UniProtKB/TrEMBL annotation:
Example GO molecular function: protein homodimerization activity
Protein name: GrpE protein homolog
Entry-linked HAMAP family: GrpE
Family, per entry: Belongs to the GrpE family.
Major site of localization recorded for this protein: mitochondrion
Locations listed in the record: Mitochondrion matrix
Amino acid sequence: MKSSLVSPVCVNILKNIKYAAFPKTNRYYTSTIIPKYTRFNKFQPFQYSIARRYSSVEDSKASEQKTTKDSNEEQNLEEENSKEETNLTPEELLNQENDSLKQKLSTLETKLKELELKYKMSLSNCDNLCKIHKKELENTKIYAVTEFAKGLLEVADTFELALKHLGESESNNSNDFVDGIKMTESMLHQTFEKFGIKKYESLMEDFDPMIHEAMFEVKDRDTHNKVVQVVKNGYTISGRVLRPAKVGVSRRQ
């Protein structure tokens, strides 16, 4: 009984495999084959592999047909263009060439103008950089001694105070000693002038916050905003304020 039941099943499986491997139509599996065949799970991978193989073959054929069609269309367009060119007269061909050359010439001229503009801008930038660098070098040479000069200003202030104190004292001072201090002070100011350091007067001048530093106020009926007392003199170096003058300013009552 078992052998009689197994043989028809095997026959059906072989028939289904035959139809799946060698289809008579473009479809991979007909509606009558697929339901019978899909009942056997162990034969499903074979079904899918056959389907993939036939689908890849058809896709490759379709892509080849598409490429051949595109190439044929391109050839037809080239032939049409060549026919149109052959139909043109020599004068028309020359006009076409002239137009194309004019377009190329215009593009080259625009590029040339852009390059000339960039070249001029680069030259101007280089000139400006050279000027700035030169000015910075000059400033470093001029103002390199600024901090050193500020330290020497304290020495000049000390000489001024010493001479003022000696002049106001009632004791008999040696003239040689006073002359020596005056000579030393004059030599110091001569050295200042060599390096562009100068003292400026501030007494009874209008108060200027750029060159004066107000230390205190003095009430006065006659003057207003005037420098009435100088505590320390002001100095400049090459036209720039080295130290502002420390002064007392009048305020009208």
